[in-house]
Automatic annotation (TrEMBL), chain A:
The keyword Transmembrane applies. NDH-1 shuttles electrons from NADH, via FMN and iron-sulfur (Fe-S) centers, to quinones in the respiratory chain. The immediate electron acceptor for the enzyme in this species is believed to be ubiquinone. Couples the redox reaction to proton translocation (for every two electrons transferred, four hydrogen ions are translocated across the cytoplasmic membrane), and thus conserves the redox energy in a proton gradient. One of its GO terms (molecular function) is NADH dehydrogenase (ubiquinone) activity. It comes from the Bacteria. It comes from Marimonas arenosa. GO terms for cellular component: plasma membrane. Residues 159-454 form the NADH:quinone oxidoreductase/Mrp antiporter transmembrane domain. It is found in: Cell membrane; Membrane. This is Monovalent cation/H+ antiporter subunit D family protein. Keywords: Cell membrane, Membrane, Transmembrane, Transmembrane helix.
UniProtKB/TrEMBL annotation, chain B:
Keywords: Membrane, Transmembrane, Transmembrane helix. The chain crosses the membrane at residues 31-49, 61-79. It comes from Marimonas arenosa. This is Uncharacterized protein.
From TrEMBL, chain C:
The chain crosses the membrane at residues 32-57, 69-88, 100-133, 145-167, 179-200, 207-228, 240-258, 265-284, 296-315, 336-357, 369-390, 411-429, 500-524, 544-563. NCBIfam families: PRK12668.1. GO terms for molecular function: NADH dehydrogenase (ubiquinone) activity; oxidoreductase activity. The lineage of its organism: Bacteria, Pseudomonadati, Pseudomonadota, Alphaproteobacteria, Rhodobacterales. It comes from the Bacteria. One of its GO terms (biological process) is ATP synthesis coupled electron transport. Keywords: Cell membrane, Membrane, Oxidoreductase, Transmembrane, Transmembrane helix. It holds the Pfam family Proton_antipo_M. GO terms for cellular component: plasma membrane. Residues 111-381 form the NADH:quinone oxidoreductase/Mrp antiporter transmembrane domain. Its main location: membrane. This is Na(+)/H(+) antiporter subunit D. The keyword Membrane applies. It is found in: Cell membrane; Membrane.
């Protein structure tokens, strides 16, 4: 299975030359990275179940995640300049064979997903032990790895149907992971069930869309589809496919009115799962949305069908305000953060909606920055849950005194959520505002700032809860253990680091945005 | 005007004891008379030197004196009139909006606060 | 090289290590940092000394020229004196906040572009609010929130202005601008909020009396003078500032006369003094700008001295209300003496610092033929003597004996006051060193016979008016009260209107809601009907709603795709 073929192709500018690029059989380990990245966690997951040892489960999962992270870093380093890696599974050339493609857009998302997994897993050890039934610990890590694999697969693959397969892998394991929260709160089962129903509907829509595309083109390779639908944009089948795919993926991404599964799922899932999912799952869905919108269908097609103006942008604005307002009135910190996630997804959609290089840069950068921000925040809440047994505002009031480190990390995360200068959140919002101004949409720029003020309110509520409210009498809980504090602070410091040093985030985002805006030439495959 | 005639003034700081004559109403009156005299002298001073000024109005003898007196009197009277409209109870905005510290801060003995 | 490091960073680094140090090292560090920063700023050459690349922008962290240097130096001095005064404070929150606050203020003064300015601008806002909250009373908490909202608002407006400015000119350089475009108006408004322009001023009188004893001393030095600096840098010679400034000198003195809380009286007189500086900026000639810089320098010192002395009273007696105080000179004579020195300085008595700085602005206004403004400023000078020069020492230390016999202020407070008082007198007696620091060459001689005599006439006849009114009983007594100011609009009227609207909206909303829910139930029932007996899924609200949404969204997307 590992015998594959990798080719390097230069990105858009040299697209025509790519066809003549010399193919070579992959011999070195480095050429197999795209495959290994998926394979390592995929193999580790059943291994955990087979070994069945509770002591081995965590080290295996952690090893797999770390290995994937290292590989993702290597991949990102290779493609950040604009290069594209095309990997043919089993040596079968696309469009017949399955192709994995890595460009700066998905390498960046891979970097985020693997990075978050690597940080969350050490954190999960204590948190999961406290929140999930002991005997399910082994299975939990297996499921975690499967979900992880699914997300990576969705991102890395260049094959449309493969996206669906991996999406299902990640979704099914996600349902299980959410249900694992039932030990703490039985409502996790309902939440998981709801998500199961809705997720399945979303996936069905997605696969219907793919079916329609297959009808119209007879192929499932993204680049191939892109090439074949280029001259039939007026085709009703293609247009229906587009609508189905946008709505289906939109559900996974929790675009505002399709978000109803998310608050419950995030609230009742085990804290470590929430931290992981919030930072990765919706982000991956946003990535898929972008990939299909810009690479499979073309930017020009988007101009033509006006979906962005009439659907995506209004929904994005709606999310920014409605979700923020709802967040303000929540009494459960997890739920508050979940609604704020919905609002932040609005920003990303808005960036996509600008249909410009700056807008996409903002969307991708925000995808990353919000990922690390939310990871820090949900890990903070998880630590509160560990010590206080719940995440209600009155339940954890005054935690700033008993858990100073956790609270301080949450404050940093909160500042980044608002977009205070010096934090990661500021960078992407800044670029987003620039995108709005570039497009000449002054009112939208104002709305971005206004909705940030709503964020100030709910973050303030959080800070008030932690610091300014008197602690209940019985509260004597101590600080969270180091194994949770270190990952939490890693993320909090990352919020500041990426707020000051934007070389990586904006560099990768800009390069990715260029790839997207180039349309299908950005997807062109080598040796085809 | 000390309420307590038998107050132990020896406990006061040195400078405080030197200034205790201010408590005597007659001494206060003396200061006021001294002020009157000083003001008169300053007013008259205007006639004894050459003013280097820019404005015609400044050359009037005692312009600054009259301006200062009249404007300040007006200021106080206007401000007093403003009270009629603007003054409210201390708890007008909120019950504990304007509050004195319960104790002088240095006697509170709060470890985290002030010494 | 040390001069390449932004000075603010020095403060931030110190703030970072401060919490882990023992108390005495903390207090020493608090003194050492401003001294070190002052020495550095004194010695480095002029120029743009520290550029940092950030998101493709070149941020200028160290713009040293004669205007920024004098403000940065006085900020260092003020930080040193404030920290010495706060030697006894053990509260780490106040110590860290004070360091970050003063560091941010210095950073903002040295900022060479609007983005850097914005960063430090917000830094001062966020750090300073902790000096208010540190009092840990309910009133202080709410005041702090109001203060924070206004200050952050100022920063956000500045950022919006900066972005528009960039769209207009293609750069973020912070240099002199012309009022006219939305960008410059926004920036102007942002400066105006921090500078406490009339109607934007209430945060000042609200917050300063609510902060801790030591916090107010620190607060009084930085925020508003930073705004004055920013105006002097960006809007020198903007005529509207002259009238804004004149109004600023005028209206606070009326409030100051009837205000009971002595710290609030000082806040009003601070506002009045800012007016002088703003007039100086508005006139914009070399003489006027020199006057603004010199007055800011002198003002920071004597205002700090006054806040220190009233703070010492508050520290020892637990109140700063005129109605509760009196007769304190017996047991706090040194504090009284320092208070009188501060009062003499703010009133511009000859031989005190105000005399040699305020007169620069007054003569600039005459030279540029703003006679009405000159008359207003003259009146304000008399007025400031009236309420700050006489009222503060009189009601705190003399007046009727309150029977309070507090101890003299602690030694470190006395030392801080003594040093500040020394500076006030030294500058007044020997203005040359200060004049040498000013942005432009000074050709002005404050000590002429005319100036001294006329100033003495003005002041002593004001004192005469006070005495006469006091003795005739016309002078308004100190009463426990608050006075309505413009903040009434957002503390009383605004909430009341909102409550009213909510009541109206609630009533109509309830009606609308009942109609809508009637429809919704109808539709819902029909929907249930159509899905027949296995309508179980529809019963679970999120799933049902979600499916509905998916259907709607798919429909809309299809329609949009097909129609376009």
């Amino acid at each position: 299975m590992a015998a594959g073929r990798a080719t390097n192709a230069a990105e858009p500018g040299a697209a025509q030359d790519a066809g003549h690029a010399v193919e070579h059989v992959a011999l070195t380990l480095a050429d197999q990275l795209p495959m290994l990245l998926i394979l390592v966690p995929l193999v580790a997951a059943p291994l955990i179940v087979l070994l069945g040892s509770r002591r081995l489960a965590w080290p295996l999962a952690y090893g797999a995640a770390t290995a994937s992270f290292v590989m993702a870093v290597f991949l990102l380093m290779r493609v950040i300049g604009g290069e594209v890696i095309s990997y043919h599974i089993g040596g079968w050339a696309p469009p017949l064979g399955i192709e994995y493609r890595v460009d700066s857009a998905n390498a960046f998302v891979l970097f985020l997903v693997t990075g978050i997994a690597t940080v969350v897993l050490p954190y999960a050890r204590t948190s999961v032990a406290a929140e999930v039934d002991g005997q399910h610990g082994t299975l939990f890590y297996a499921m975690f790895l499967l979900c992880f694999t699914g997300l990576l697969g969705v991102v890395i693959t260049g094959d449309a149907f493969n996206v669906f397969v991996f999406l299902e892998i990640s979704s099914l394991s996600t349902y299980v992971l959410i249900a694992a929260g039932a030990v703490r709160d039985r409502r996790a089962l309902t939440a998981a069930y709801d998500y199961l129903i809705m997720g399945t509907i979303g996936a069905t829509f997605f696969v219907i869309g793919l079916g329609l595309l297959y009808m119209a083109t007879g192929t499932l390779n993204m680049a191939d589809i892109a090439e074949r639908i280029a001259d039939q944009t007026g085709n009703r089948t293609v247009r229906a496919a587009f609508a189905f795919i946008v709505v289906g993926v939109g559900l996974k991404a929790a675009i505002y009115p399709l978000h109803l599964w998310l608050p419950n799922a995030y609230t009742y899932a085990p804290s470590a799962v929430t931290a992981f999912l919030a930072a990765t799952a919706t982000k991956v869905a946003i990535y898929v949305l972008m990939r299909f919108m810009f690479s499979v269908f073309q930017p020009l097609y988007l101009v033509e069908v006006k979906t962005l103006e009439f659907i995506i942008i209004p929904l994005a604005l709606l999310a920014m305000f409605a979700a923020s307002v709802i967040a303000i009135f929540q009494t459960d910190l997890k739920r508050l953060l979940a609604y704020s996630s919905l609002a932040q997804i609005g920003y990303m959609l808005l960036g996509i909606g600008f249909l410009s290089e700056t807008g996409l840069t903002a969307a991708i950068a925000h995808l990353f920055n919000h990922g690390i921000t939310k990871a820090a925040l949900f890990m903070g809440v998880g630590a509160l849950v560990l010590r206080f047994g719940n995440s209600y505002c009155d339940g954890v009031a005054g935690a700033g005194r008993t858990m100073p480190w956790t609270s301080a990390a949450m404050v940093i995360g909160g500042l980044s959520l608002i977009g205070v200068p010096g934090t990661a959140g500021f960078i992407s919002k800044w670029v987003l505002v620039q995108g709005a101004l570039e497009a000449g949409w002054w009112p939208v720029a104002m709305l971005i700032v206004l909705s940030s003020l709503l964020a100030v309110v709910y973050v303030w509520r959080m800070i008030e809860t932690l610091y300014l409210q008197p602690a209940p009498e019985r509260a004597a809980a101590g600080e969270a253990p180091l194994s949770m504090l270190v990952p939490m602070w890693l993320m909090a410091l990352a919020c500041i680091w990426f707020g000051l040093n934007t070389e990586l985030t904006l560099g990768a985002s800009l390069s990715a945005a260029k790839g997207f805006m180039a349309g299908s030439p950005g997807l062109i495959l080598a040796g085809h | 005007m000390s309420q307590d005639k038998h107050e132990d003034t020896d406990a006061f700081p040195w400078l405080g004891r030197r200034l205790l004559w201010l408590d005597n109403r007659r001494n206060v009156n003396r200061i006021v008379y001294a002020l009157y005299g000083l003001c008169a002298a300053l007013f008259l001073a205007d006639f004894f030197y050459h003013k280097h000024v820019y404005l015609g109005v400044e050359e009037l003898p005692g312009f600054y004196a009259v301006y200062g007196f009249v404007m300040c009197a007006m200021l106080v009277i206007c401000a007093k009139a403003m009270r009629v409209i603007l003054m409210r109870r201390e708890d007008y905005y909120a019950p504990r909006d304007v509050e004195a510290e319960e104790y002088p801060e240095d006697q509170l003995d709060r470890a985290e606060h002030d010494a | 090289m040390p001069e390449m490091m932004p000075t603010a960073l020095l403060f931030f680094l110190a703030a970072a290590i401060l919490p882990v140090l023992p108390q005495y090292l903390r207090a020493l560090l608090l003194l050492a940092v401003p001294v070190l920063a002052g020495i550095i700023l004194w010695n480095i050459p002029e120029g743009m000394l520290a550029q940092v690349g950030f998101m493709g922008l070149e941020l200028e962290f160290m713009r040293i020229d004669s205007l920024s240097r004098i403000f940065a130096l006085i900020f260092c001095l003020a930080a040193f004196l404030g920290n010495l005064y706060a030697w006894h404070v053990r509260d780490r929150v106040q110590q860290v906040a004070g360091l970050i606050y003063s560091g941010s203020a210095i950073g903002a003064v040295l900022a060479g572009d609007l983005i850097t300015l914005f960063l430090f601008w917000e830094g001062t806002a966020i750090a300073s609010v902790f000096l208010i909250w540190a009092r840990r009373t309910e009133g202080a908490y709410h005041t702090g929130l109001r203060y924070l909202i206004i200050q952050i608002g100022s920063g956000v407006i500045l950022l919006a202005g900066a972005v528009l400015y960039h769209a207009e000119t293609g750069n973020f350089v912070f240099e002199r601008m012309q009022l006219g475009s939305p960008a410059t108006w926004l920036i102007f408004l942002s400066f105006g909020i921090k500078c406490a322009f009339p109607l934007l001023h209430n945060w000042l009188q609200d917050a300063y009396p609510a902060a801790t004893v030591t916090g107010t001393v620190i607060l009084s030095a930085f925020t508003t003078k930073l705004a004055v600096y920013a105006l002097a840098r960006g809007f020198a010679g903007t005529e509207i500032l002259i009238y804004i400034g004149a109004a600023m000198t005028l209206f606070p003195i009326f409030y100051a006369v009837i205000e009971n809380d002595l710290r609030r009286v000082l806040a009003y007189s601070l506002n009045n003094q800012l007016g002088f500086m703003v007039v100086g900026v508005g006139i914009g000639t070399e003489l006027a700008l020199n006057g603004t810089a010199a007055h800011a320098f002198a003002h920071i010192l004597y205002k700090a001295l006054l806040f220190m002395s009233v703070g010492a009273v508050l520290f020892r007696t637990g109140t700063a209300k005129g109605s509760e105080l009196g007769g304190l000179y017996k047991t706090m004579p040194l504090t009284m003496v320092f208070c009188v020195v501060g009062a003499a300085s703010i009133s511009a008595f000859p031989l005190f610092s105000g005399f040699i700085s305020k007169s620069l602005i007054l003569s600039a206004s005459v030279k540029e033929h703003y006679y009405i403004v000159w008359a207003v400023l003259l009146f304000a000078s008399a007025g400031v003597f009236h309420h700050s020069g006489i009222k503060i020492p009189y009601f705190a230390f003399f007046a009727h004996d309150s029977g309070k016999r507090p101890k003299e202020a602690p030694p470190h407070m006395l030392l801080a006051m003594a040093i500040t008082a020394f500076f006030c007198v030294y500058i007044g007696v020997n203005p040359e060193p200060l004049y040498a620091l000013l942005p432009y060459e000074v050709k002005y001689e404050p000590y002429t016979t005319t100036h001294v005599v006329t100033q003495l006439q003005l002041l002593f006849f004001s004192a005469l008016a006070f005495t006469v009114l006091m003795r005739t009983g016309i002078y308004p007594p100190e009463l426990k009260s608050v006075n309505l100011d413009f903040d009434w609009t957002y503390r009383k009227a605004g909430p009341a209107i909102l409550r009213y609207l909510r009541a109206v909206a609630g009533a109509s909303g309830a009606y609308l809601g009942s109609v809508l829910s009637g429809w919704a139930i109808g539709i819902f029932h029909r929907f249930q009907h159509s899905t027949g007996p296995e309508g179980r899924l529809a019963q679970s609200w999120p799933t049902g709603a979600m499916v509905l949404w998916i259907a709607i969204l798919l429909g809309v997307t299809l329609v949009v795709s097909f129609l376009s």
